[in-house]
Amino acid sequence: MRILSNVTPGSLYGLMGNITLSTNNENYYIITDYKFSSSVKDYLAHPKSLSALKMVKLNETYLSKTIANLSPSEIKKVSLAKALLSSKKYLIFDYFDKDLTSEEQAYYLRLFKRLTTDYGKTILLFTNDLTFLWSTKTIYYVDNEGNITSYNPKDPALLDCITPPPLTEFINLLRSKNIKISDYYNSADLLKALYRIKED
Amino acid sequence: MSTLFTLNNLEFKDIDTTVVYTSSYNYLNDAIFFLHHDTEVITITSNASITDIPISILKEFNCLYLLTQTKLTKIDELKLSILKSLSSTKTIYVFLNVLTYLEPSFKKNIINYLKLHHKRIINYTQNMEETLLLDYIIVVHNDLVIMEGAKKSVLLEEKIFKKLGLNLPFIVELSIGLKYYGLISKIYFDNESLVQALWN
């Protein structure tokens, strides 16, 4: 994981590109396969298992469950609980946002930020959804040749590498029709802007 | 509309359907059902090889670059798996939370290809933008069907989706806001139509 060798510790980063995550560095914890064979209790195997489960929005009833009793989303949350119990300073998440509702995505982003500020963790989120990464410090994009470029998450240049989110596509369409509009990153702000433009 | 099959509480009708589920739903159990009902089931686990796919298909889906890749990523393998399935004689395709990993253009091309070849599509997803792709929606929460119906009526149920922790697709959410402010008179489901309605 070349990317993490140069980052400032204790922050939240994004990672995009058509790559497969891997590392030989034992300081890094990649949360990627979202599978385990034992019960949740045995998998977590830690005195603070219940606290970790609660942090990921699962309760004590999950301790006795096995992977067969869990949905893919719940398996993912248990994997996160396991990562929280590790002492690794670097946590890397592989498409963690998939299998989560919008509300859960927002909750876990808040949790990740808390882990960076309160516990000094360095977190790297790998996904293809730019909207999930807009609040990260920096997004690293890896191209097909393996070159790594860092972007401010809201840098328009990043959109040359990836498919823009629906909101950005809509703004681009307005601009293509000569409607002057700033950049927005949520539909509520865009709505207000459209109202103002139409009122004028 | 005739019924294709009934699976626990889910009755699949003969129409292209998006199944939107919340995090407690274990759709992997549904996979087992589908595998026994003569459907083409696409999961994130791939077993395809580049040699399984005709060059014409690779070209049509802008995947010729895969021929020169020395090491395939998880997403490359998923694409191969989907492209391989296109030669199947089965008439029903079930995507189990996989389209969300693909870029929108590839996703739309696959859907269009299957529709053109008169295949029936069932797409399980938590990515609400994907609900715009197919005509019918079933919403599942805690193993129960919360609501179902034509896309254009189900997506108007903003309050129910919010309660489930799911955001509406961007264009629908924006339309609802614009309609509330009296800037448009109905809900739109694509960018072009909405922009036209705003700047007629």
Please identify the oligomeric state: heterodimer
Order of strands, widest sheet of chain A: 2-3-4-1-5-6
Task: Give the number of helices of chain A.
Answer: 6
Decide which structural class fits the backbone of chain B: alpha/beta
CATH superfamily of chain B: P-loop containing nucleotide triphosphate hydrolases
Q: Please identify the top-level CATH class of the largest domain in chain A.
A: Alpha Beta
Instruction: Please tell me the CATH architecture of chain B by its name.
Output: 3-Layer(aba) Sandwich
- Spans of at least 5 consecutive residues with low confidence of chain B: none
**Biggest β-sheet: strands ordered side by side in the sheet of chain B:** 4-5-6-3-7-8
Element-level helix/strand string of chain B: EEEHEHHEHEEEHHHH
Largest sheet of chain B: 6 strands, mixed
Strand content of chain A: 5-15%
Described by strand count, sense and barrel closure, the largest sheet of chain A is: 6 strands, mixed
**Total separate domains of chain B:** 1
CATH superfamily of the largest domain in chain A: P-loop containing nucleotide triphosphate hydrolases
Distance between the termini of chain B: 37 Å
Please tell me how large the radius of gyration of chain A is.
19 Å
CATH topology term of chain B: Rossmann fold
What is the helix fraction of residues of chain B, given as a range? 25-40%
Kindly report the average pLDDT value of chain B: 94
Structural notes for this entry:
The complex is a heterodimer of chains A (200) and B (200). By secondary structure, chain A is of the alpha/beta class. Chain A has helices at 40-44, 49-55, 72-85, 102-119, 166-176, 187-199; strands at 12-17, 28-31, 90-94, 122-126, 138-142, 148-151. Chain A has a 6-stranded mixed β-sheet. In chain A, α2 packs across α3. Helices cover 34% and strands 14% of the residues of chain A. The N and C termini of chain A lie far apart (51 Å). Chain A is globular and about 60 Å long. Chain A has 2 domains: 2-154, Rossmann fold; 164-200, no CATH class. The mean pLDDT of chain A is 92. By secondary structure, chain B is α/β, with parallel strands linked by helices. In chain B, the strands form 2 sheets. Chain B has a 6-stranded mixed β-sheet, sandwiched between helices. A two-stranded antiparallel sheet of chain B has the order 1-2. The mean pLDDT of chain B is 94. Helix content of chain B is 34%, strand content 20%.
